[in-house]
Amino acid sequence: MGCRSVRPSRRTSAMAFFEDLPEADDPLLGFAPYLHSRPRRNSITPDRQRMFIAALAASGIVTQAARAIGASLEALYKLRLMKGAEGFSAAWDKAVDRGMLRLQDCALERAILGEERPVASQGKVVATYTRHDTALMLFLLRQRMPERYAAPPTQDARPGSPLYERVRRDIEAQMPTVAETRAVIDAKLEQLRRTIEARRTREEDG
Prior knowledge:
The protein has 206 residues and is mainly alpha-helical. It is built from eight helices and two strands, in the order H-H-H-H-E-E-H-H-H-H. The chain folds into three domains: 27-112, no CATH class; 115-144, no CATH class; 154-206, no CATH class. Helix 1 runs parallel beside helix 4 and helix 4 crosses helix 5.
């Protein structure tokens, strides 16, 4: 399966171009659609509901699936919330999940095969090279093989834990000792005593 971009039609009343649409007998399309008691010309009929779900599963994008059947987002979301549309709503969620799986597969393909990038000289493409996205590759590895590639879990920082005790020792190492603290206090008290005595002397002389 390729990972070409979805190219929707400019006309909202026509089926847009989607790759790998579900087959007619796909279980995803076997949901119970909402039945309008008095359908209008612009009602989202059961056939249009299935077309929307098929387009959504292929693209993973609600706006493009809506455009594919010529319906507004407002009408679709309103239909989804109506009593009797539970089957349509559940199929909607499954279609989004399928679209996300396809997106994940495309990302994996891109990470493994890389992207072809042009090399230009004097305004002309003279060569191409393959660029691999290391960050994307690591992300996918961590998602699919977390036991091997996931980042280390956050360490326990509760009192008594090794991390807590190490941080406590580091902080205490930067703090003055009891003797140093007392010396600072004594020096401040001595300075205060001298200030008071000097003030008294000035008052007596005055």
